[in-house]
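Hi R.,

Here's the chain you asked about this morning:
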Amino acid sequence: MTNIELIRTYYSLFNEKRYDEMAELLDEKIVHFINEGSTEEGCEKFRSFLNTMDVHYDEQIEDLELFIGESADRIAAEFYIVGIYKKTAEGLPQARNQKYKVPVGAFFEIKNKKIFRITNYYNLKEWVEQVSQW
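And here is the predicted structure, written out as tokens:
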């Protein structure tokens, strides 16, 4: 599997909510830079993150575009995250099944055919404005 195929598979599994299979694509020492949050390390923490997110949000990736770096071990992704805010998350507005759609940028580093680093960025203020309109 090429690195581009690895990332396409990662997002396909995300859309299908096959989180255990997603985790198989990760290096055991995965480094995850959470948007406007902390940095977590390790596959188990990433699994926990996905499961927590799934409690609060029902999300799908749309309009995925991938860009590969010169060394082929770094890949950037641009897409829209389209979702429903199901359950209130700490520090965020009250959830009432609000719909949202925000652009996201993600950056990956691949080592030994596994995803070693994931960095996600989106405009949290835009997301808050969208879910606060309901």
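One quick note: The domain at 3-132 is CATH 3.10.450.50 (Nuclear Transport Factor 2; Chain: A,).

Cheers,
M.
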